[in-house]
Amino acid sequence: MFDGFQLDRVTVGEVTLRVRHGGSGPAVVLLHGHPRTHTTWYQVAPALASDFTVVCPDLRGYGQSDKPAADDAHTQYSKRAMAGDVVQLMTSLGHDRFAVVGHDRGSYVAYRTALDHPDRVSKLVVMDGVPVVEALERCTDKFAAMWWHWWFFAQTAKPAERVICADPETWYNAWTSNGPDVLGPENHADFLAAIRNPATVHAMVEDYRAGLGIDRQADEKDRADGRQITCPTMMLWSERDDMEEIYGNPLDVWRPWCPQIVGHGIDSTHHIAENAPLELVRSLRGFLR
Predict the structure, then answer these.
(1) What's the topology of domain 6-288?
(2) Of 146, 155, 183, 213, most Cβ neighbours within 10 A?
(3) Are 59 and 76 in contact (CB under 8 A)?
(4) pLDDT at site 5
(5) What is the pLDDT of residue 205?
(6) Overall pTM surpassing 0.90 (yes/no)
(7) Mind listing the UniProt keywords for this protein, alphabetically (predicted)?
(8) Would you kindly state where each structural domain of the chain is located, as residue ranges?
(9) What is the arithmetic mean of pLDDT over 67-78?
């Protein structure tokens, strides 16, 4: 995987991130979702590397990046903290301005990076996600039924980690819908190593706990203050997932946050980078140039 890319560990404040980077041209950082690692981009990153310098970290808590202990507010796993990691990482690699692409949980980190650091982000792409506060305020019985894991992961009195770690490979469908034939052998091996590590599972759940509290509060304050995303923004969503079923046109949810947003659906199941890499690369290259 990642022919011509360099694999490093880069310290950014309180954590050290595992990061893969390569290519040449304007910088773009690709942020994975749950429960993936940076290797989810193994088909996308090399295809972009002829036009861009591509940076793929494991988010804090995920994969082989550090997993700091969390306080009661789960501050260490807030999207603000993760966005700070992204900015420090790109500074360390010599990139003052860069585009940010995020999928799933990575989309929350991506838009938080654009909101908190508008001077650093040249373009933003969010995939299969809307602002946390918008998702929670639109919570219906349909949303709760489809996204029940948000509430399950948030429990601390009866921690979700105990259930997941009892049989992580079954929980994460590691030999069915997330098998090596779908993820690719090397990407699958990295995914397996992550979900088999109880510390990683705990950190991934902490990400969700932050989402229902401190991340929502950050969104609420931004909205009350009238803050918007000012850089060019694109949203992509999986047409064979549930975004349209829950939100109708997802762009309508995003417009109060970035009025000039563009985007479209892609014929894919949820993990677009693995299921529809060619179409994703075409969409990203056309927007990021």
Answers:
(1) Rossmann fold (3.40.50)
(2) 183
(3) no
(4) 98
(5) 98
(6) yes
(7) Hydrolase
(8) 6-288
(9) 97
